[in-house]
Amino acid sequence: MLELAAAYLGVSRARLHSELQSGRTLAQLADATSGRSATGLIDALLSTRQRRLRVGAGTGANVASPASQRARLARLRMRVSAQVYGSSPRARRRRASRRAPS
To answer: Containing domain of residue 76, as a range?
Structure first.
């Protein structure tokens, strides 16, 4: 995901990682980048994953019903949004580790 986010934001993966380690969220970085937005980042990340699902469906690997696929995409959107806005469990752990006394 970081590779895709870095490409969308037009920065290196190392720079993106550094910004995230300093406490900024992907949403903050996207909104601070000219011509980019948190919503656009979410859409870009989702489109890549949706493309993978369609490719899998074309090979017969994914034979879920359309309703099941919509539910899966809705859950995926929630997870990606939580990661972008910094409310995922991983993001919370990262913030907590920065606040922990040394």
So the answer is: 2-99
The one-letter amino acid code at 15 reads R
CA angle at 96 for the pair 90 and 98, rounded to the nearest 5°? 110
Instruction: Provide mean pLDDT across the span 34-60.
Output: 82
Return the structure tokens found at 91. Answer: 């993001």
CA atoms within 13 A on the CB side of 96: 7
pTM score: 0.76
Alpha-carbon span 53 to 88, nearest angstrom: 23
User: What CA–CA distance (Å, rounded) separates 99 from 83?
Assistant: 19
Distance CA 6, CA 14 (A): 9
Map residue 73 onto helix, strand or coil.
helix
- How far apart are alpha carbons 61 and 24 in whole angstroms? 38
Q: How many structural domains does the chain have?
A: 1
